[in-house]
Amino acid sequence: IPEILSGVVEIKNIAREAGSRTKVAVTTTDDAIDPIGSCIGQRGTRIQTVIRELGGEKVDVVMWSADEAEYVSHALSPAKILGVDLRRDDHLALVKVNPDQLSLAIGKGGQNVRLAAKLTGWKITIAEEGGRVAADSEVGEILPDEPTALEPDAAGDVPESAAAADVKDAVAVAKGEPVEGQDAA
Known about the structure:
alpha+beta; GMP Synthetase, Chain A, domain 3; six-stranded mixed β-sheet; disordered C terminus; 9 strands; single chain; three-stranded mixed β-sheet
């Protein structure tokens, strides 16, 4: 991609689940350039070349932002995010979505939220508007459909006992260690 070679478009970070999907965060040094459009190309021609090189692996190109809440929101695309509250003490992003955007935000088998967490370096918890927690990237699980009392209080804290009970009863969709953020090499 010529704009990347010339330095006008910069890859800030990459999160990948090999053979399945990759998320790439990009930015630009020139406000007249659309970094996502530059990577995708007309009718997807540029990104299709990359996809072929990766053996058909899906590639999501998202906009990087210095504003961490905005970056988390972009990383969860294609879902439309209502809001992101950052809890800096435990590096947790509490994300609110409309119920019709929930499956997009989580992704197949929790993949979208896991990749977004890797890309941004934030643990991500997704909740429907109204408070029901639906997915947690840190534990790699999708939580059950029963309503919970996990609405943050005025200080932004989630009750520990309620969170622990829901996580304990969750259906695991990913095995292994909790997702931790990683920087691109």
